[in-house]
TrEMBL record:
PANTHER family named among the record's database cross-references: CATION EFFLUX SYSTEM PROTEIN CUSB, SLR6042 PROTEIN
GO CC entries: cell envelope; membrane
Stretches assigned to coiled coil: none
GO molecular function terms listed in the Swiss-Prot or TrEMBL record: transmembrane transporter activity
SUPFAM superfamilies: HlyD-like secretion proteins (SSF111369)
Keywords, sorted A to Z: Transport
Organism: Cnuella takakiae
Protein name: Membrane fusion protein, cobalt-zinc-cadmium efflux system
Similarity comment text for this entry: Belongs to the membrane fusion protein (MFP) (TC 8.A.1) family.
Gene3D superfamilies, alphabetized: 2.40.30.170, 2.40.420.20, 2.40.50.100, Helix hairpin bin
GO terms of biological process kind: copper ion export; plasma membrane copper ion transport
Superkingdom classification of source: Bacteria
Length: 383
């Protein structure tokens, strides 16, 4: 029995040791593949001939720096209007839907309320009262000239007349405020309804009411947008603001249509830096874009001043796992993959940052068919 127990314990230890060794071996193989994939690839003579590798070096060229940013279509505050009504009332009718085009002065809706009747009544009554007081005042002036009345009576009548003029004037302004013309108001056309008129020409962006709803003076009934002066607001990081200037050309395009380019010009650069370190740059489209709606997200490319930089052909740079790499020839048919940071690109060339430029200066770099080496490196890692 003791021998059996010893045998079982020994077998268990050997099994665990074997599993650990297998795991260590697999890890080593994976690490070896990872190293191979990340660093070097060696081609046979036959593979090298088929790959047609071209070797070059860094070149110094003058290249235009291109700043790529994003933004959103916006309209100036004077082109966005929230429509409310100075007096409360019940919405009797409206035919508006979001997207409906309305002209300035067009009827947006009709309100109905008893207070509209009262306001018109007050105005007409005040108008009649003023006529009486005006006649009485003139009569008192005549009597005063003949010393047939007291000075106190004249002053009282004049005070009543002036107060009534002020009252009538204020009622006129209240009527105009709700869209009624006092000059056209008479006892035969008093109405319980008033129209809501559009203050601008544009499109309805929001309808916040429905038929029969009671609205108060603080409620926003409709929201209108006039797209005639839409502009683009770009978000630019503070470090890049120094590269921009008013009047600079911008090429813009929507995220849904990258082929159709829309030219614009920088109109204003904000002097206020947001908490995230960004600055707003306002751009004006060079021609009216009726298809662009406020709130549309857009991409923009801004050409900054030309500058000398060390560049490589775009065919020398490969992209892999969201990083950029170039291949440096170490010896015949042996190449090492080096990570790089790229900059602006123009006419088939791409700039490298200063650190990469110094590290790669004078070294033989694969300038064409670099993707063939990347495929060979990946295939080697998968073996």
């Amino acid at each position: 029995m003791k021998r059996l127990i010893i045998f079982i314990i020994a077998a268990t230890i050997l099994s665990c040791s074997s599993k650990k060794q297998d795991t260590a071996t697999e890890t080593a193989v994976k690490e070896e593949k990872q190293v191979d994939r990340n660093y070097t690839v060696q081609l046979t003579d036959s593979q090298a001939r088929n790959a047609q590798i071209v070797i070059g070096q860094l070149e110094k060229k003058e290249i235009a720096n291109q700043l790529k940013v994003t933004g959103k279509v916006d309209v100036p505050p004077q082109n966005m209007v929230s429509v409310s009504f100075p007096l409360g009332g019940y919405l009797k009718s409206t035919n508006l839907l979001p997207g409906t085009y309305v002209r300035k002065g067009g009827v947006l809706g009709v309100l109905e309320d008893i207070q509209f009747i009262q306001l018109q009544q007050d105005y007409l009554s005040a108008k009649v009262r003023l006529q009486f007081l005006e006649a009485d005042y003139k009569r008192q002036q005549t009597l005063d000239a003949g010393q047939a009345t007291s000075t106190k009576m004249v002053q009282q009548v004049r005070s009543d007349y002036q107060s009534q003029r002020i009252l009538l004037r204020s009622l006129e302004e209240k009527l105009r405020l709700i869209g009624l013309n006092p000059a056209r108001l008479s006892e035969g056309n008093i109405s319980k309804r008033v129209n809501i008129y559009s203050p601008i020409s544009g499109y309805v962006s929001k309808v916040n009411v429905n038929i029969g709803k009671y609205v108060s003076p603080t409620d926003v009934l409709f929201e209108l947008v006039n797209p005639a002066d839409i502009h683009l607001v770009l978000t630019v990081f503070q470090k890049d603001v120094a590269k921009l200037r008013v009047g600079q050309k911008v090429i813009t395009y929507t995220t849904s249509d990258t082929i159709r380019k829309i030219p614009a010009t920088i109109l204003l650069i904000s002097q206020d830096v947001a908490p995230d370190g960004s600055v707003q740059v306002h751009c004006h489209f060079e021609y009216e874009e009726h298809k662009l709606l406020p709130g549309t997200f857009m991409n923009a490319e801004i050409e900054t001043k030309n500058a000398e930089a060390f560049v490589l052909p775009e065919t020398a740079v490969v992209s892999f796992e969201n990083n950029h790499y170039v291949f440096v020839q170490k010896e015949e048919n042996v190449y090492e993959m080096i990570p790089v940071q790229t900059g602006a690109s123009e006419n088939g060339y791409v700039a490298l940052d200063d650190a990469n430029s110094k590290a790669l200066a004078g070294k033989p770099i694969v300038s064409a068919n670099a993707y063939t080496l990347l495929m060979a490196l990946k295939n080697k890692a998968d073996e």
